[in-house]
Amino acid sequence: MKINRYLAILVFLGSAAWIATGEFSFVGSASSEEEGATVAESSEPQIEAATQLQTVGVAVIPQIMHARSVNLSGVTQADKETTLTARAGGVIGELLVKQGDRVTKGQVIARIAPEGRDAAVRTAQQVLEQRKAEAEATLKLVERGTLAKLQGDAAMSALRAAESELEAAQAELERLEIIAPYDGVIDKLHVEEGAATDSGKPVAELIALDPIIGVGEVNEGDLGVVRLGAEAELRLVTGRTVKGTVRYISRAAQAATRTYTVEVEVPNPDFSIPAGMTTELVLRGEPVLATPVPRSVVALNDNGELGVRTVDDNNVVRFHPIDIVDDSTGALILGGIPKGARVIVSGQNFVGDGVEVNAVDADAAMIEKLIAETATGDS
């Protein structure tokens, strides 16, 4: 029992001495500290790596004056189209044209047989001559006082009536001729020589093909690009492209489509472009300073805006929202990029706005690719 008591006292004294030293570490604790020190040492290279600048490729892309274009599906139409009708009834005595013939303004297309109308003109002329002679004789007698002035007035009234009858007979004879009101082409004939017709019945279809008109519909979003008198093109379904000008822009939208009618006038002196042909209208706006860039250069910022990233003189990334002036085959034509800006063409999606980067000029191969793509886009 005494031995156990002594052992207990010894253990107590040893514990007290250990506590007094302040060393509370266990074997596992010491190893953890050593591992922590090792981890801290190994993280130092990682921190240094994290502070290294991101390398991006930059290039100064030449800017150009570019007019935005709007392409519309459309069709060609005649400048004017008229149905020529008979102004008097009768038989077609002469048909002076065939379908497809070109005619000039004032040319006679057909004549209706007079059937006595020319005789009525000759009779009216004779009556007029007689009334003139009677009026002259009557006025002389009135001046001498032989006849009353009232008889002179009656003779003059008869003369005026004869003149009116002659004019009416001549007008009736003139109505027998169907005349072209403008230069054009006889697109269709509705009568044959010797056929009977009535007043108001169609005789021929006349169309004016010089100029030819391209007609299309522009949506309300692109209406601001279109200008009266601006240059435009028609790309015909045959592959031919002709130049013209915008001559008409509707100011009221189509109720069903909310689009506006646009007409492009193109010279067609040889009538080589027919009416009714499918075509594409290419309308161009005012030229603006723009930058042609490959599509790969465009990026999104944190707000979801579309733009390009550049680096300033301090190699800090800047984001520039863009305005798409035109979208061509090889490139985007953009507005909103400062002149002479160093555009990030490689690595733009791995850097944020306001971050300092290591900006290096793009290599020769990339520059050549950029030039080729932007040249294709500019064309």
UniProtKB/TrEMBL annotation:
<dbReference type="Pfam" id="PF25954">
    <property type="entry name" value="Beta-barrel_RND_2"/>
</dbReference>
<dbReference type="GO" id="GO:0015562">
    <property type="term" value="F:efflux transmembrane transporter activity"/>
</dbReference>
<protein>
    <submittedName>
        <fullName>Efflux RND transporter periplasmic adaptor subunit</fullName>
    </submittedName>
</protein>
<keyword id="KW-0175">Coiled coil</keyword>
<comment type="similarity">
    <text>Belongs to the membrane fusion protein (MFP) (TC 8.A.1) family.</text>
</comment>
<dbReference type="Pfam" id="PF25917">
    <property type="entry name" value="BSH_RND"/>
</dbReference>
<feature type="domain" description="Multidrug resistance protein MdtA-like barrel-sandwich hybrid">
    <location>
        <begin position="82"/>
        <end position="204"/>
    </location>
</feature>
<dbReference type="InterPro" id="IPR058625">
    <property type="entry name" value="MdtA-like_BSH"/>
</dbReference>
<feature type="coiled-coil region">
    <location>
        <begin position="152"/>
        <end position="179"/>
    </location>
</feature>
<dbReference type="InterPro" id="IPR058792">
    <property type="entry name" value="Beta-barrel_RND_2"/>
</dbReference>
<dbReference type="InterPro" id="IPR006143">
    <property type="entry name" value="RND_pump_MFP"/>
</dbReference>
<feature type="domain" description="CusB-like beta-barrel">
    <location>
        <begin position="217"/>
        <end position="285"/>
    </location>
</feature>
<dbReference type="GO" id="GO:1990281">
    <property type="term" value="C:efflux pump complex"/>
</dbReference>
